Amino acid sequence: MSAALRPPSGSPHARLWGIGSYRPARVVANAELVEAIDSSDEWIQQRTGIRERRFASPEETVQMMSVAASRQALERAGVDARQIDCVVVATVSHLLQTPAVATAIAHELGTDQAAAFDISAACAGFCHGISLAADMVRGGSARHVLVIGVERLSDITDLTDRGTAFIFADGAGAAVVGPSDEPGIGPVVWGSDGEQFDLIRTREDWRDVLAADAPVMPHLVMQGSAVFRWASFTMAKVGLQALDRAGVAPDQLDCFVPHQANMRITDAMARAMKLPETVRIARDIAEQGNTSAASIPLALDRMLAEGDARSGDTALLIAFGAGLAYAAQVVTVP
Ligand code: UT7
């Protein structure tokens, strides 16, 4: 007869305890990019809402930016690094294939050999990480989880590509997820549409790169209009589902923090969801560009800093991108 195993037991609920972010120092205005792609500041602002973005310096590595954002999140959460049981890093631009950058970050932060791994869900990565973290806390495999979204997309962006050069940017955001007496992270609505796998991707895999006469970095390529249509309409439905599953009516929502992909997508989603005018909407993309997995924590942290979000607010997060992968949940702002 097999032995009866003791079941895992966690906290009844999970919530965000603290959030932090890191923006690279160098500001890159549209004017710096337009010549190489025969574009204009006016076109970029009109089509995307982006005025400027940040590009990381060689010293602002994925690890460095992650550690800076994480220290801020830990301090605000009042959690010591040694209390972190797991570090989850969402990124597609840590260019060392293995080991996971999460392990180096966990070590540099001074965790007590926390479990650490990277996840690849592109722009949807941060919300995937929050969902995993909430389940770990509730399931008993971790008490405190550090979730990081970080990108150096400037490394994998072709600055001569008219379809992507003006969109992507660099930065990091982090959140501490921990136990709670009340639900602070609602049910996730997530999925993927692999039929549209090719809409956003790196152009080649490493074997193709090495087989080429003149190897170049595998850059991101995107069929922008198709992604735009998918995001604007399908994601609004996903957002409404996340609200419904959390038992939150649109007029009970304080903040909407979508992935910062394009200001027009944000506006289209808000319209399609019929969000009341009282809902404060994250618009960090104007100064930060599209930082993929980092965009939601960067945007939420800025809303907190500028008073557009307050502790205890109810916020809807929606992340979407390559895969096409997506994830949405309602959270209580820490
Ligand atoms: O983060 C992951 C998810 N990513 C996204 O959600 C991004 C979604 N897609 C987008 O944000 C938009 O599709 C872009 C901003 C990338 C492109 O905007 P668009 O309105 O879809 O442009 P388009 O490719 O349909 O091109 C429209 C026009 C064309 O000219 P005509 O044929 O109308 O005369 C293009 O030649 O704009 C022209 N165009 C440009 N003009 C100046 C295309 N790219 C540029 C450019 N500068 N960079």
Structure write-up:
The chain is an alpha/beta fold. The protein is 32% helix and 24% strand. The protein has ten helices and 14 strands. The protein has helices at 30-33, 41-48, 62-77, 101-109, 125-139, 206-211, 224-246, 263-272, 285-288, 295-305, and strands spanning 13-22, 26-29, 52-55, 86-90, 115-119, 145-152, 170-180, 189-192, 200-202, 220-222, 255-258, 280-281, 314-321, 325-332. It is globular. The site of oxa(dethia)-CoA (UT7) has 22 residues, from helix 2 and helix 7. The site of oxa(dethia)-CoA has 22 residues, from helix 2 and helix 7.
Please describe the structure with a list of short key phrases separated by commas or semicolons.
334 residues, alpha/beta, Peroxisomal Thiolase, Chain A, domain 1, 2 domains, 5-stranded mixed β-sheet, binds oxa(dethia)-CoA
